[in-house]
Amino acid sequence: MRTSIRFEKANGFPFLLASTVVLALLAAGCATPIGVVRRTTQETYYSLTTNVLSAGEPSSWSKQVLHRNNLSEQFENDPGLALAELHKRLKDRTTSDRLFALAELSFFHAEQSGNRKYYFAAAAYAYAFLLPECQDMMIRPIDPRGRLAVDLYNWGSAVGWRRSMTTQFCSTPVPSCCRSAR
Question: Which SS3 state, helix, strand or coil, does residue 72 take?
Answer without folding.
Answer: helix
